[in-house]
Amino acid sequence: MSSIALKRLYGKIAVVTASTDGIGLAIAQRLAQEGAKVIISSRKENNVQEAVKKLCSEGLDVKGLVCHVSKAADRQKLFEEAHKIGGLDILVSNAAVNPEVGDVLDCSENSWDKIFEVNVKSSFLLAKEAVPLLRQSKAGRIIFISSIAGFQPFDLLGAYSVSKTALLGLTKAAALQLAPDDITVNCIAPGVIKTKFSSALTSNEDAELEILSRIPLNRLGKPHDISGAVAFLASDDGAYITGENIVIAGGMASRL
Description:
Pfam families: adh_short_C2
GO molecular function: carbonyl reductase (NADPH) activity
Organism: Rhamnusium bicolor
Radius of gyration: 17 Å
Keywords: Oxidoreductase
Strand order of the largest sheet: 3-2-1-4-5-6-7
Largest sheet: 7 strands, parallel
CATH topology: Rossmann fold
Family: Belongs to the short-chain dehydrogenases/reductases (SDR) family.
Number of strands: 7
Distance between the termini: 34 Å
């Protein structure tokens, strides 16, 4: 992507989880391009180092930490780092797992627990733990990354789909609670974005053609299709938007 002329986030500090690849990396890159200091994270040290190296080589202000979002100590380190560099204005909760494919009622209990621990509980805890710092910001922002599957479940992603529906409700409830603090809470629901994570849906030509048949724009999304919307919500341009679940899916059906 070419350099971004807008600098709507100059002076802001952002934490983006699961941000060393795919959608998360694109979000971190875009926030930094718009002037934010960004703390990226991933479960693997090598991935963090490579992503930091890449973004710093582009002249962006980025730091990286290892963080497994299910671990309280790791989450604490993210917010301690943010506090060290000046506070926190933007939290983007992007981490998600899907250890098992299949219909929802065929999901094993272990996989169900892991999916909800990472996709839902960790998002809740990240938001809860970020609030003290966000209250000190002039315009705090929480942005959850859900999925089109949260609106319209995919057969192969049954339990994952339900976890992403839960984020839609978390967004609505948290937005009401935090509005008096001038903290907005919104959610992005990406469609099928061409990443490693979506490979289960696009693993062969027939599967990809089936997915494309559901997308009026007739193409898979790209990570930067999501990152621009996140930057908008994080900026002053999105200051009067809260409690919303925004679908970015090329026109795919999205109705609960």
